[in-house]
């Protein structure tokens, strides 16, 4: 029983990390083109000193941009956007 519990606890970080990347990258691309490119181009994602290092960090950065701009997205749309950004630029997982 203790081994099973220990095994499950080891998997928690993987489950948490994977849940950040749920989404539809194709839908995220549409959102990105409509909402994000008004403020910046893709150079922000490809610069060598970028701040985003993890999937959670990427999601946090997206949420920060949304707060700054006042853009309202549903949770599923945020997941789509994060998935698109990760698949296209960050490749964190």
CATH topology: Cytochrome Bc1 Complex, Chain D, domain 2
**What is the CATH architecture term?**
Orthogonal Bundle
Please provide the ordered H/E string of secondary-structure elements: HHHHH
Provide the CATH top-level class: Mainly Alpha
Task: Give a quick rundown of the structure.
It is built from five helices and no strands. With 93 residues, the chain is an all-alpha fold. The protein is globular and about 30 Å long.
Structure description:
The chain is an all-alpha fold. The chain has one domain: Orthogonal Bundle (Cytochrome Bc1 Complex, Chain D, domain 2). The protein is 71% helix and 0% strand. The chain contains five helices and no strands. Helix 2 crosses helix 5 and helix 4 packs across helix 5.
Helix-strand blueprint:
Blueprint: H1 2-20, H2 25-36, H3 43-46, H4 55-69, H5 75-90
Helix pairs in contact: 2-5, 4-5
Observed structural traits:
single chain; 93 residues; 0% strand; globular
């Amino acid at each position: 029983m203790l081994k099973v519990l220990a095994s499950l606890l080891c998997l928690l970080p993987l489950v948490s990390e994977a849940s950040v990347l749920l989404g539809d990258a194709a839908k995220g691309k549409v959102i990105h083109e409509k909402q994000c490119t008004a403020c910046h181009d893709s150079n922000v994602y490809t610069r060598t000193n970028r701040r985003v290092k993890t999937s959670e960090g990427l999601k946090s950065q997206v949420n920060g941009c949304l707060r700054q701009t006042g853009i309202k997205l549903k949770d599923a749309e945020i997941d789509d956007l994060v998935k698109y950004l990760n698949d296209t630029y960050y490749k964190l997982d």
